[in-house]
TrEMBL record:
PROSITE patterns: BTB (PS50097). The lineage of its organism: Eukaryota, Metamonada, Anaeramoebidae, Anaeramoeba. Residues 51-117 form the BTB domain. This is Speckle-type poz protein. It comes from the Eukaryota. Gene3D superfamilies: Potassium Channel Kv1.1, Chain A (3.30.710.10).
């Protein structure tokens, strides 16, 4: 997995969290501060008992925190702010692969993707989801996808053409 560089912090979840809550985000650039926040968010990802929203995909459920979705997605933010119902809500991802949705949710909490799970097909789904859910434009998801595509898809096409020319 690609590790987050301190220079990328301004593109990540911790920065998004501080921007939307109105806290001074200048201290977040300090290495230890950001590590602590990311560690806490990773713990939050594991805490199923505090999750208050359900995503359904391929008839499987993924429990998440509305706060994380709201911070990372303008679409979810609008949806959650316009709904007065405080009960658990469900969102159905019909037509998307469970693995892609699971990786996207993992990314929203951790700001990293397991590149071994990326394929040409789910990269296209990631791009569609990023655009549809209006994921925060500061997100580093785009750089992950571009890096993966250029390293794997573009280079494999180039190698294939070179082999055909021999």
């Amino acid at each position: 997995m690609k590790e987050i560089e301190i220079e990328e912090i301004e593109k990540g979840l911790a920065y998004d969290l501080f921007e939307q809550t109105g806290f001074d985000s200048n201290w977040i650039k300090e290495k230890e501060g950001i590590k602590g926040i990311l560690k806490d968010l990773s713990k939050l990802y594991q805490q199923n008992e505090t999750k208050d929203f359900t995503i359904i995909c391929e008839e499987k459920e993924i429990k998440v925190h509305k706060l994380i979705l709201q911070i990372r997605s303008e679409l979810f933010k609008g949806m959650f702010l316009s709904v007065n119902d405080t009960s658990n809500q469900v969102h159905d991802y019909t037509g998307k692969s469970f693995q892609t949705i699971q990786e996207l949710i993992y990314f929203l909490y951790h700001d990293k993707i397991d590149e071994t799970k990326l394929t040409k097909e789910n990269i296209e789904e990631f791009v569609d989801l990023k655009d549809f859910y209006e994921l925060n434009q500061n997100s580093i998801l785009g750089s992950y996808l571009v890096d993966f595509y250029s390293k794997n898809i573009f280079n494999s096409s180039k190698t294939k053409k070179e082999e055909e020319q021999k």
